[in-house]
Amino acid sequence: MGVEQQPVLRIEGLHFHFDTRPVFSDFSAAIEPGITWLRGANGMGKTTLLKLVAGTLTPNRGSIGLGGIDCAAQPLAYRLATFYCGGDLPDLPWLTVQEFLDLHLALYPDAEARQVERQLDAFGVTGTLEQALSTLSLGQHKKVQLSLALALPVRLLLLDEPFNGLDAAAVEYLRGQLGERGARQDACVLLTSHLEPLVEVKRMLDLDR
Ligand SMILES: Nc1ncnc2c1ncn2[C@@H]1O[C@H](COP(=O)(O)OP(=O)(O)OP(=O)(O)O)[C@@H](O)[C@H]1O
């Protein structure tokens, strides 16, 4: 299958369990460009689904593909097209913010450093570049991750509670950025939020149903 101009995230027959705890059993969904709100009660599997779609967890069965690129069969191409922005500290918390950003810029060869700088500036966290990641506040950490998320040339953004922990100015800025991205036909955004998201969404994927 060729690469789709308007990428659709296709999840088919997904099964996933942690040890003995089943989380997904024959779950399927098709997610089109624009913003999709992934909702569900605590523990229903929202973060797990984002990590499966990001390729950081592996399904026990089923397939995940984005715009004709299969996550399991073409892992490098798939990962270049996606970015997961969660709440966890990365595995290397002693890295400085600059080192963390450089690492990602190396992983995404089409990314432009000046786009990341522009986002860091807009979020007001340029001053943290020499700090270790482990020393950032919750909100600063979120802003650094969002700066990357918004700057990378990916077709699928996976955002876990993107507005949590942000100050009012950052919430406004993020609303504007996501609003623009949500209008694009070449990009999908899947975001979780317990409350109604502060940005217009095209559709909802409800894990409670
Ligand atoms: N590493 C893990 N090992 C075992 N079970 C896990 C692990 N991570 C999550 N779970 C379990 O998997 C289920 C789904 O968790 P997940 O974090 O995806 O839910 P969620 O919908 O994002 O919840 P919340 O709204 O509370 O953030 C829960 O029952 C949780 O206890």
UniProtKB/TrEMBL annotation:
Q: Which Gene3D superfamilies match?
A: P-loop containing nucleotide triphosphate hydrolases
Give the matching SMART domains: AAA
Q: What Pfam families does this protein map onto?
A: ABC_tran
Superkingdom of origin: Bacteria
| Keyword field | ATP-binding, Cell membrane, Membrane, Nucleotide-binding, Transport
Q: Which GO terms describe its molecular function?
A: ATP binding
In this protein, which residues make up the domain named ABC transporter? 9-207
Q: Which PROSITE patterns does UniProt cross-reference here? A: ABC_TRANSPORTER_2
Q: Which InterPro entries match?
A: AAA+_ATPase, ABC_transporter-like_ATP-bd, ABC_Transporter_VariousFunc, P-loop_NTPase
Q: Which SUPFAM superfamilies match?
A: P-loop containing nucleoside triphosphate hydrolases
Q: What name does the UniProt record give this protein?
A: ATP-binding cassette domain-containing protein
Q: Which organism is it from?
A: Massilia frigida
